[in-house]
Every structure is written in structure tokens, then in C-alpha cells.
UniProtKB/TrEMBL annotation:
<feature type="domain" description="Penicillin-binding protein transpeptidase">
    <location>
        <begin position="379"/>
        <end position="652"/>
    </location>
</feature>
<dbReference type="Pfam" id="PF03717">
    <property type="entry name" value="PBP_dimer"/>
</dbReference>
<dbReference type="GO" id="GO:0046677">
    <property type="term" value="P:response to antibiotic"/>
</dbReference>
<protein>
    <submittedName>
        <fullName>Cell division protein FtsI/penicillin-binding protein 2</fullName>
    </submittedName>
</protein>
<feature type="domain" description="Penicillin-binding protein dimerisation">
    <location>
        <begin position="164"/>
        <end position="337"/>
    </location>
</feature>
<dbReference type="InterPro" id="IPR001460">
    <property type="entry name" value="PCN-bd_Tpept"/>
</dbReference>
<feature type="domain" description="NTF2-like N-terminal transpeptidase">
    <location>
        <begin position="45"/>
        <end position="157"/>
    </location>
</feature>
<dbReference type="InterPro" id="IPR007887">
    <property type="entry name" value="MecA_N"/>
</dbReference>
<keyword id="KW-0131">Cell cycle</keyword>
<dbReference type="Pfam" id="PF05223">
    <property type="entry name" value="MecA_N"/>
</dbReference>
<dbReference type="GO" id="GO:0008658">
    <property type="term" value="F:penicillin binding"/>
</dbReference>
<dbReference type="GO" id="GO:0071972">
    <property type="term" value="F:peptidoglycan L,D-transpeptidase activity"/>
</dbReference>
<dbReference type="GO" id="GO:0051301">
    <property type="term" value="P:cell division"/>
</dbReference>
<keyword id="KW-0132">Cell division</keyword>
<comment type="similarity">
    <text>Belongs to the transpeptidase family.</text>
</comment>
<dbReference type="InterPro" id="IPR036138">
    <property type="entry name" value="PBP_dimer_sf"/>
</dbReference>
<dbReference type="GO" id="GO:0005886">
    <property type="term" value="C:plasma membrane"/>
</dbReference>
Length: 658
């Protein structure tokens, strides 16, 4: 025994002899245990453990004393470095002490619980032990060894998480069949070290991509490819574009043998075509930096993530819960860290839940094909009249970057004469054959209104004013709608209602009140009235059915509080309105639809000014055939007969042919 130890033990013996009378005095009060605990030598050991655990989680161990397994001192920063290595890409775990330390002479142990949060939020928790040693200064030192983090870890080991993605839930059509399924793609890339003439390669690739039919919209832009190649390693795979396999096969002979081109076959979750309800469905793509930043701990770099549309909105439901496997990695002979077969933890993936919609593949394909030839931004919605199911939501060109079909907020133009006429008929202000003048111009409070191409009809039956779409006749009739007649008629057709479709949709805003000039403009769909294609398709379906019902789009999970059905429309109003909408096709402004297959078509054309320049107009057509009501919108499309009606004709012919 060293001299100073003998002195310390002698002092301790003397203090114990002095305490004996005091302890005896307190025995009857039951306080002996309390005093003994207060003098326990376990408390400093527990304090040392707690300081270690706090520093472990904070990544700062400067004030904690360590020795290694051989009893050699090791610094706190060195331990921080080793902990950072062994946890790999995992965030710091939550670590807590369980109970009191067990002390035996100059050695102690403490039980711990280590709780890791794995990607996706899965917890991996287990018990472990930390050992301590008392030094010559009566202070406790933590014995640092990798087994503190996990009992199977040794020096140089690292934890590695292997991710197994869950089967993604399918987006189902109205028949319950998957719309989006796993389909083959080809990722086209280039290897910089094998390209000698970058501008020539870019030119050849651009020409090949433009040859794909149907044309990819928006076009594939390669302006940044030269810079990305410069920044990449010489042997890197610099991705150019991902193509559906059928599109790749079209141009394979043109690009396969180009210097530096490389190709990687993969599987992606895709709709039947690139355009198919693209803005509604969204896409499933490799995880992006924004996803990782916005969802820390949820995704890893190998994940696929839903972006936009239903895929993005219902991402949590569709993606399911991926599996996590934690294995030990070790350095190989080349010094690289590689996973071993030693598995420490695993979970099983939980498949994503499907999302059922009302989309009808046949109708959606017909709508997409109808929009395809038009270069404008376009939108179309088709609804089954009998039950309100949304059969198609199409956007163009190329499927559309924005879901105008559901969210556009634009003036309806003369399609709104359907609503105005319902209000006039409800109020008894007009009838089919009552004469209503259609002059070339009509002035209200100094504001002059005119007809398309300055036509005039004279004093004609109201049905003719409607069929030929006479603005001046409706401007003159506006006072007969009163303060709320137009808004009341619109609301009876579902406009401005609170819908729950399972996706965002604009239900319209009807102009009400205002100056006499504003009321005159609102009577034929100008002024401050705003609608969306789905709102007008639903209103048209209401006229065809005789009662408005909220459209249905997402069926499962079902919207919590869909809007109740509206009151039945007056037969004395809706039957004349249907007659007039048929005459729009037979003798009016949409005669191009008179001969389409599939039965008679009813409808209404519309041209809507959207700013102070009369040359700037949107084009519309709303109508129905059989059990399908639909609305066509063409942004800046000019006259409806030039753009919207031809789209409607292509849609109906496509539908009949499929």
C-alpha cells in the first residue's frame, strides 16, 4: 500500500469512529439508510456516467475522463471521433442510464439504454453497459470501448443501415385497377472521359430527342449538360434524361453508338402514357435534396418519392414503411469500409395503402389525345352525369405542369350564358320563343358591349340569341336577374360551394351586385366571375341531370365531408335550357359537333376576355353526350370555334373509337 493510501484509510477509520454515537442516536428515527446513501461512493460514478451520456449526445466530451480497455488514458475529442466513425450515417442516439451504478472497489458498471432513430422514424433500442475505473485521485474514468455503443462492436467497426423500400401503394382507377404500375425505363447518360466533341454530342442528342413521337413536352433541354460534364469526374455517369423504354427504342439507333453515351435500365412507377392525367397523378422520382432537407430522418438517397399531384399529396399513405436492416461494416484489405453479414437489427417493410379514384382509363386517354395537337395551355374535365364521378382530368401540352383542369381561376365567357339563362328562366323573364333583340352593340352606363365579329341578329327568338351566343341580348337582359339572380342560379349549379374531392379544386366565384355595367358583363361570363374547368363541367352535368351533385374523384380514403346534393332544378327552366344547348350544336356556334358519333351533343361555346385587350381571349366549350358531361378550356385560345370546339370534337370521336 502506498503511503498516501495508508493515510487516507487511517483518516477514514477515525471519521467512522467519531460518527458511531451520532448514528446510534438516529437509528430510532429510521434515518440510518438515508445517511449511508448520502455518503455512497456510487453517486460520483453515476455522475461520471451522466456527464459521458450528455457529452455523447452533444458531441462534446472535453470534460469527461477516459481510459481505453488497456487502462491507457484517452482524450475526450478522440472518443468523439471514434463515436462519429462507428455510427456512420446515423444521427446521434438518445442514451440514458438505467438505475444506479454498481460499484465494487475501484471498478463500476452502469446499465444504459441506447435508442437510435433510423431513417423513416423507426426506433432501434437495446440495453448495453458502460464500465468505469477509479483513478488514483479518487475520480471515476469511463472505460471507452466500442461495445458501449453495441455489445458486438469492436475497434474499427461501423454501423451501416441497409434500406429496403416498401411496395408502393397503387393509384387505382374507377374499376379498381392500378393506373400507375412498375414500367421499364432507360436512363440515358454520358461518360465525360469518352466524349471528345461535347457540342457535337449535345446537338445529336437534341435532334434525337425531338424525333420521339408523341413529342415530349416540355422539350428536353440540354443547355446545362456541358457544364455538368465539366464538374463531374471523368468516369462518372452524367445523367441526361430518363425515357420510357418504348420512347428509347424509337431513337436507340441514333444515340446508342454516340461517343460517351451510356445506358442504364431501371424500373419506375409510371402511368400508361407520359401524358396520362399527369398533373393530377404527379410523379414518383428519386429523392431530391429538398425532400431530404424538409424531412430529416425520413428519406435516404436511394428512396423514390412522390412529387406533385396525388403522388405527392398522399405520399405518406402510398409509400408505406420501408424496412431497415443494421449491419456491422469493417475495413477490407484495400482499406474500404464494406458491410458484413453480421446483422444487428431488422424490420420488415409495410406496403403502402392504395388510393382509389374515379378516373376511367378510356375517357382519360380520349381527353389526353384530344388536347395533344393543340400548342396552347389547355385543360379538360369529363364527369359521369349519373353519379358525378370524374372520368378524366387532362392538361396540355404534354400533360401540363399545372393542373388547370381543377385549379384554374378564369372568366367563363359565354359558357356562362347557360347559368344566366337558368336564372332568367327561373324568374320567368324569358322563354324559348319570346323575342329578344340582338343589336350590334349595347351600351350600359357608358360602357359599350358588342358581339364576336360585330354580328347582329335583330329582333329574334331568345333561343336564337342563345344558340348564336349574342352578348348584347344578355347585356340587355341583365337587369331582369336582379341583385342575386345570377349568383343564385350559379349556386344551384354548385358554383362557390365547398367541395371535398380529396384534391384541391376551385369551385368558382360568381359576380353579384355591382354597377349596371358590371351586371351586364357578368350576364355573359365577363366581369368578376371566375370559374375552373371542373366547376363548369359539374354545372353542365347538373343541367343534364336536373340536379347538382358534388363531383367525386378520390374514393378511398373518402373525403370526410362532401357537399350535399343541391335541390332539383325546375323542370320548367331546365328543359328549355337543354333544348337551347342542343340548338347550339345543330344551328348555332358549335355545328362541327353535329355529326360526331355517339349520339346527340348539347353544349355552349364561350370566348372570354381576360384583360383590357379584346384580342386576348380564352376559348371554352361545355357540353354533354350521353352520360358524359365535359368542359374544355384553352388559354389564350382565341375564338372557341377555332380551338375549343375542335378539341371537343376530337374528344368525342376518340371516345367513340376506343
Amino acid at each position: 500500500m502506498r503511503p498516501h493510501e495508508h493515510h487516507r484509510n487511517d483518516n477514514l477509520s477515525r471519521r467512522r469512529r467519531l460518527r458511531r454515537p451520532m448514528l446510534a442516536a438516529f437509528t430510532g428515527l429510521g434515518l440510518v439508510a438515508t445517511l449511508l446513501t448520502g455518503c455512497s461512493r456510487e453517486a460520483p460514478a453515476e455522475q461520471a456516467v451522466d456527464e459521458f451520456l450528455r457529452g455523447w449526445q452533444e458531441g462534446k466530451l472535453d470534460q469527461v475522463r477516459f481510459v481505453d480497455g488497456q487502462g491507457q488514458q484517452i482524450t475526450g475529442p478522440k472518443v468523439v471521433e471514434e463515436i462519429a466513425f462507428l455510427r456512420g450515417d446515423l444521427p446521434a442516439p438518445a442514451v440514458r442510464r438505467e438505475g444506479e451504478a454498481s460499484v465494487g472497489g475501484d471498478a463500476a458498471t452502469a446499465k444504459l439504454t441506447v435508442d437510435w432513430t433510423l431513417p423513416g422514424g423507426t426506433h432501434w433500442a437495446y440495453p448495453t453497459t458502460v464500465r468505469l475505473k477509479r483513478d488514483t485521485e479518487d475520480r471515476w474514468r469511463i472505460i471507452w470501448e466500442p461495445r458501449i455503443a453495441h455489445e458486438q462492436l469492436t475497434e474499427g467497426d461501423q454501423l451501416t443501415v441497409r434500406r429496403v423500400s416498401a411496395t408502393r401503394g397503387a393509384i387505382l382507377d374507377g374499376a379498381g385497377a392500378p393506373i400507375v404500375t412498375t414500367r421499364p425505363i432507360v436512363v440515358v447518360g454520358v461518360q465525360p472521359s469518352e466524349v471528345t466533341d461535347v457540342p457535337a454530342l449535345v446537338k445529336q442528342l437534341e435532334a434525337a430527342f425531338k424525333a420521339i413521337r408523341p413529342a415530349i413536352s416540355p422539350p428536353i433541354e440540354l443547355g446545362d449538360l456541358p457544364d455538368r460534364m465539366k464538374q463531374a469526374k471523368p468516369d462518372a455517369f452524367v445523367e441526361v434524361v430518363s425515357l420510357r423504354k418504348e420512347a428509347y427504342q424509337q431513337i436507340k439507333p441514333r444515340i446508342y453508338d454516340l461517343p460517351g453515351t451510356k445506358f442504364r435500365e431501371e424500373q419506375r412507377e409510371l402511368a400508361p402514357t407520359r401524358e396520362f392525367a399527369r398533373a393530377l397523378l404527379g410523379s414518383v422520382d428519386p429523392v431530391q435534396k429538398d425532400d431530404l432537407d424538409a424531412n430529416p430522418g425520413v428519406y435516404v438517397e436511394s428512396d423514390l418519392v412522390g412529387h406533385g399531384g396525388l403522388q405527392g399529396q398522399y405520399e405518406k399513405q402510398l409509400r408505406g414503411t420501408p424496412a431497415n436492416t443494421v449491419v456491422i461494416s469493417r475495413r477490407n484489405a484495400d482499406g474500404k469500409i464494406e458491410p458484413t453479414d453480421t446483422e444487428l437489427f431488422r424490420t420488415e417493410p409495410t406496403p403502402g395503402a392504395p388510393l382509389r379514384t374515379t378516373i376511367d382509363v378510356k375517357t382519360q386517354n380520349a381527353a389526353d389525345a384530344a388536347l395533344a395537337p393543340d400548342p396552347h395551355r389547355t385543360a379538360m374535365v369529363a364527369i359521369r352525369i349519373s353519379d358525378g364521378s370524374v372520368l378524366a382530368t387532362a392538361n396540355g401540352p404534354g400533360g401540363g405542369a399545372e393542373n388547370l383542369a381543377l385549379t384554374a381561376q378564369v372568366p367563363p365567357g359565354s359558357t356562362f350564358k347557360m347559368v344566366s339563362t337558368l336564372g332568367l328562366l327561373d324568374g320567368g323573364a324569358v322563354s324559348l320563343d319570346a323575342p329578344v333583340s340582338c343589336p350590334k352593340t349595347f351600351t350600359v352606363d357608358g360602357r359599350s358591349f358588342k358581339n364576336s365579329n360585330d354580328f347582329e341578329l335583330g329582333n329574334v327568338p331568345f333561343r336564337t340569341d342563345f344558340a348564336k351566343s349574342c352578348n348584347t341580348a344578355f347585356a340587355a337582359l341583365a337587369p331582369k336577374l336582379g341583385d342575386t339572380g345570377l349568383a343564385d342560379a350559379g349556386r344551384s349549379l354548385g358554383l362557390e360551394a365547398k367541395w371535398e374531392l380529396g384534391v384541391e379544386a376551385f369551385t368558382g366565384k360568381v359576380s353579384t351586385g355591382g354597377s349596371p355595367a358590371e351586371r351586364a358583363a357578368a350576364a355573359f361570363g365577363q366581369g368578376t366571375t371566375l370559374v375552373s374547368p371542373i366547376a363548369m363541367a359539374a354545372a353542365t352535368a347538373a343541367v343534364a341531370k336536373g340536379q347538382w351533385q358534388q363531383p367525386k374523384l378520390v374514393l378511398d380514403p373518402a373525403p370526410a365531408a362532401p357537399a350535399p346534393a343541391g335541390p332539383p332544378l325546375k323542370t320548367t327552366s331546365v328543359e328549355p335550357l337543354r333544348t337551347m344547348m342542343r340548338e347550339v350544336v345543330t344551328v348555332g356556334s358549335a355545328t362541327a359537333l353535329k355529326t360526331v358519333p355517339g349520339g346527340p351533343v348539347q353544349g355552349k361555346t364561350g370566348t372570354a376576355e381576360y384583360d383590357d385587350n379584346p384580342a386576348h381571349t380564352h376559348a371554352w366549350f361545355v357540353g354533354w353526350q350521353g352520360d358524359v358531361a365535359f368542359a374544355v378550356f384553352v388559354e389564350n385560345g382565341g375564338g372557341s370555334g377555332e380551338t375549343a370546339v375542335p378539341i371537343a370534337e376530337r374528344f368525342l370521336r376518340n371516345l367513340a373509337a376506343r
